[in-house]
Amino acid sequence: MLVTHIGKLQENPAALCKMAAKLSGKTTKIDPPNDFEALTKAFSGFGVDEDSMVSILGKWHSEHLESFRKRTPKFFLEDERLFERWDDHHIACLTKEFLRFKDIVVQWIMHPWERDARLVHEAISKGPQAYGLLIEIACTRSSEELLGARKAYQSLFDQSIEDVASRLEGIKRKLLVALVSSYRYEGLRVNEGIARLEAMTLAIVVKNVDKKNPIEDDGIVRILTTRSKFHLKAVVKYYKKIYGKNIDEDLDTLMSLKETLQCLCNPQSYFSKVLNNAFKDDADENTKEALTRVIMTWSNVDMKEIIEEFDKQYKVPLTQKIEDVALGNYKDFLVSLIRRVA
């Protein structure tokens, strides 16, 4: 009979907590089932829910903590020595989520040149999977902003971005070196005849991708890194006019070229996609970090246009998406930065 009763208690953590409290002489008004659910959510999001952690953990007794460890196998493993221990992977993930709010505050206060320089340095350190960030920074900053980031990089790391980029491996190296080294004309003047010819040049190279990757072609690299953004928009316009379709349709297998043109010609659409990818359940850490990076970079520039494009593409306000996915102080800070420009 006693064994059966104990078994039933083990199946009911709330009853087990009450029994433990009674036996220890303690009384509690805590509702463990609700608290367990709230705490699990507080530990499981994009950022952490600091308020829930404080309110729940501050009033829990040891029996509640033990019950929580037993009920959350995705956080805790049963050790061979008969105790529940944190899963090392989850500790690492949780540490990252606790730091997310710190990172956004530090980056917000940081000078834009320093922020970009540090982002570039981190991307280079991570390797090829993060090289897209170099394209993003080189193509979406003004010539003066990119020059400022290059100055900051030299001050912070005692070397030049151009030198570091020249030592990267892979087919993207030529394009990356040229992009980070460029000082692009930013005036409104466009030579329509040259834009039309360059649209044809781009088409020829893209259609012969099986012979040579376009980002290794000197002519294409020159067009992408020296022409103004207004000129490149004209090139894209003529491409569609001549060949009857958007250039994006021909670049699905050429992501570096596609990302470069999107960042140069339609950054609002590009960043909307980057933000949406960051919200996905299966997003890796590099993809998630874009949420902080995009809002930090654009909150004082063109964030309103990105917000409008996101709403248009995904039929949901960006603030609502953040409210649904993020947690705690991290969420609140993101939302406050967006609402100040919305």
Which features does this protein show?
342 residues; mainly alpha; two-stranded antiparallel sheet; 20 helices; 2 strands; 69% helix; 2% strand; disordered N terminus
Describe the structure.
The chain has about 350 residues and is an all-alpha fold. It has helices at about 1-10, 15-25, 30-40, 50-55, 60-70, 90-110, 110-125, 130-140, 145-155, 160-165, 175-180, 190-205, 220-225, 230-245, 255-265, 265-280, 285-300, 305-315, 320-325, 330-340, and strands at about 75-80, 85. It has a two-stranded antiparallel sheet with strand order 1-2. Helix 3 (about 30-40) runs antiparallel to helix 4, helix 6 runs parallel beside helix 20 (about 330-340) and helix 19 packs antiparallel against helix 20 (about 330-340). The protein is elongated.
Topology of this structure?
Elements: H1 2-11, H2 13-23, H3 32-42, H4 50-57, H5 62-71, E1 76-78, E2 84-86, H6 88-109, H7 112-126, H8 132-140, H9 143-157, H10 161-166, H11 173-181, H12 192-207, H13 218-226, H14 229-243, H15 255-265, H16 267-278, H17 285-298, H18 303-314, H19 318-325, H20 328-339
Antiparallel strand pairs: 1-2
Gap between N and C termini: 65 Å
The oligomeric status of these chains comes to single chain
| Percent helix range | 55-70%
Mean pLDDT: 88
The biggest sheet amounts to: 2 strands, antiparallel
Structural class: mainly alpha
The side-by-side strand order for the widest beta sheet comes to: 1-2
Which range does the strand content fall in? under 5%
**Would you list the SSEs in sequence order as H and E?**
HHHHHEEHHHHHHHHHHHHHHH
| Shape summary | elongated
Question: Would you report the number of β strands?
Answer: 2
Query: In angstroms, what is the radius of gyration?
Result: 26 Å
Low-confidence stretches: 1-10, 19-30
Number of helices: 20
